Amino acid sequence: MDLLEEYRKANVIFESGDPRRAAQVLEPIVAAEPHNSAVRQLLARAYFNSAQLAGAEAQLRALIEHDPSDHYAHHVLGRTLERGGRFREALPHLRLAAAMKHHQDYREAVQRVETWLGKSDPA
Questions:
Q1: What's the CA gap between 68 and 119, in Å, rounded?
Q2: Any idea what DSSP says for residue 68?
Q3: Whole-angstrom distance, CA of residue 23 vs CA of residue 6
Q4: Nearest 5°: phi and psi at 6?
C-alpha cells in the first residue's frame, strides 16, 4: 500500500464531504504510521465530522499525549466532548486552546460552553 497516495485519496474524500469513507481509508494508515500527526489529525476530523465521537476523542487524546502544546488538538477535543454533552470535561481543553492561540473560534467555543454551564448550574 502506498501510504502517501492513500492519505491524499482520504484527503480528497474528506474534502468532498464524505468523512465516514475518509476515516475508513485513514484507519489502516494510522495503524501503519501511528506517530504521523497529520494523518491522525485528519482521522480525528473525519471521525468528528461523521459523529464518531469516541473515535475522534481517542485520536485527539493520542495527539495531545504526543504533543501537549497542540492547541488545535485541544480545541477539537473540547469540541468533541462538547458535542457529546460532556461540557465540564470540554471546558479545560477549550480554555487551554484559547490561551495558547488567539483565534475567534476558540474564544467562541469557550464562551458557548461557559454559558451552557452557567445556565445548567442552579443559582
A1: 31
A2: T
A3: 11
A4: -65, -40
